[in-house]
């Protein structure tokens, strides 16, 4: 099996890792010659698909499946056209993505289906969260604490380009669903932890959700997938606030971070499921998912005397990464590490027979890194004032 991954940043890293786990051959295509996924694939082609669609067509002619790992709408449209001309399956649901890539369209969908979501401003109290309509993940998200800061924000920003809604305290969870029309499979929920700027720094599994909340999460996710007539994969992120789950966002594309955690915990590889959907037009039966292993997955940055746990954005511009097993005691690391004396980053993947044992193992890994690199400062920031706007 040979697949082409178009995009070599965060989603590309995830796709390459899962493809490696599936023993697939991987071609990565990206216009950046230093894309992080370059070091994780079998072949790399530096190609701007918007300017060189003919070159892209030549690169993909011997692949079995194309997987988009980018979120540029014009680039995705170009990829749809090239894949259609080449008659190669593209693991992408254009209609579902059109809805989920817009936070405004997604919010309209939640409202129409009567699904629980944060209330919009001005029908809520402060603090609020402001999110760009057309960006995914945590990019440019900010918390606004008071009316003065909110008034200044609204003066400077075009409100139709932003979603402003209530800020809800509580743990965040993600659940991926793979769909084929009316059929869908919801996989394993994972726990998300954020850094100071609301970027996901750590994913853990399994999580402690009650049976009732787990069932509710799966019903919400399946309802969304079936309404969108999903063909492919979608992730649903919620916050657990005052014993209720509220939907924060949905994305109809292979996400980063969580699929690896699900694969390490349950043995289920979402990329293999995607292959079944787009190559065989079928959803394989999956036995009830009893979590098999505890997993801690996180990103770290090392420089001078610091080790900081940070959001995944630090991996996007790290240059080509490589995979190392038994990295300072971690099961696996995706890293640009070359020597203890130079700044470096890594995604650490640690697993054990339970989440508690995985966390203890992870702490031993951190201590081993700090000792080997002679580091004296450890930081593990959480959302705080650095991501908050306040009036004077």
Determine Rg (CA atoms, Å): 21 Å
Structural class: alpha+beta
- CATH A-level architecture of the largest domain: 2-Layer Sandwich
Residue-averaged pLDDT: 92
CATH class of the largest domain: Alpha Beta
Beta-strand segment tally: 20
Approximately how much beta-strand content do the residues carry? Answer: 25-35%
Determine the CATH topology of the largest domain.
D-amino Acid Aminotransferase, Chain A, domain 1
What is the 3D form? globular
Question: In this structure, how is the largest beta sheet organized?
Answer: 12 strands, mixed
State the helix count: 11
**Unreliable residue stretches:** none
User: How far do the termini sit from each other?
Assistant: 59 Å
User: What do we call the CATH homologous superfamily of the largest domain?
Assistant: ATP-grasp fold, B domain
Task: Estimate nothing, just give the exact number of structural domains.
Answer: 4
Helix content: 25-40%
Features:
single chain; 392 residues; alpha+beta; Rossmann fold; D-amino Acid Aminotransferase, Chain A, domain 1; 4 domains; twelve-stranded mixed sheet; four-stranded parallel sheet; 11 helices; globular
């Amino acid at each position: 099996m040979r697949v082409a991954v178009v995009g070599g940043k965060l989603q590309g890293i995830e796709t390459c890792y899962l493809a490696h786990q599936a023993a697939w051959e991987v071609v990565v295509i990206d216009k950046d010659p230093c894309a992080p996924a370059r070091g994780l694939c079998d072949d790399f082609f530096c190609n701007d698909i918007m300017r060189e669609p003919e070159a892209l067509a030549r690169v993909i002619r011997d692949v079995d499946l194309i997987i988009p790992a980018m979120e540029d709408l014009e680039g995705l449209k170009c990829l749809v056209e090239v894949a259609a001309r080449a008659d190669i399956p593209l693991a992408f649901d254009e209609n579902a993505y059109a809805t989920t890539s817009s936070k405004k369209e997604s919010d309209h969908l939640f409202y129409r289906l009567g699904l629980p979501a944060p209330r919009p401003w001005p029908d809520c109290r402060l603090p609020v969260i402001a999110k760009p309509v057309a960006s995914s993940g945590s990019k440019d998200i900010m918390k606004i604490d008071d009316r003065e800061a909110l008034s200044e924000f609204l003066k400077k920003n075009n409100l139709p380009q932003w979603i402003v809604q209530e800020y809800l305290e509580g743990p965040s969870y993600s659940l991926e669903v793979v769909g084929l029309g009316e059929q869908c499979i919801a996989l394993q929920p994972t726990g998300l932890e954020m850094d100071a700027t609301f970027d996901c720094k750590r994913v853990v599994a399994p999580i402690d959700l009650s049976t009732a909340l787990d069932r509710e999460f799966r019903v919400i996710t399946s309802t969304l997938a079936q309404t969108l007539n999903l063909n492919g994969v979608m992730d649903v992120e919620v916050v657990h606030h005052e014993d209720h789950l509220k939907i924060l966002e949905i994305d109809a594309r292979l996400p980063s971070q969580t699929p690896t955690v699900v694969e390490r915990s349950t043995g289920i590889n979402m990329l293999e499921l995607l292959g079944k959907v787009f190559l065989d037009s079928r959803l394989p039966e999956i036995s009830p998912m009893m979590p098999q292993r505890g997993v801690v997955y996180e990103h770290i940055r090392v420089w001078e005397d610091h080790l900081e746990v940070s959001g995944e954005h630090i991996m996007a511009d790290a240059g080509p990464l490589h995979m190392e097993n038994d990295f300072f005691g971690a099961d696996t690391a995706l890293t640009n590490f070359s020597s203890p004396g130079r700044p470096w980053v890594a995604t650490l993947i640690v697993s054990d027979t339970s989440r508690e044992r995985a966390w203890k193992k992870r702490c031993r890994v951190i201590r081993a890194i700090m000792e080997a690199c002679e580091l004296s400062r450890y930081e593990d920031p959480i959302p705080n004032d650095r991501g908050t706007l306040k009036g004077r």
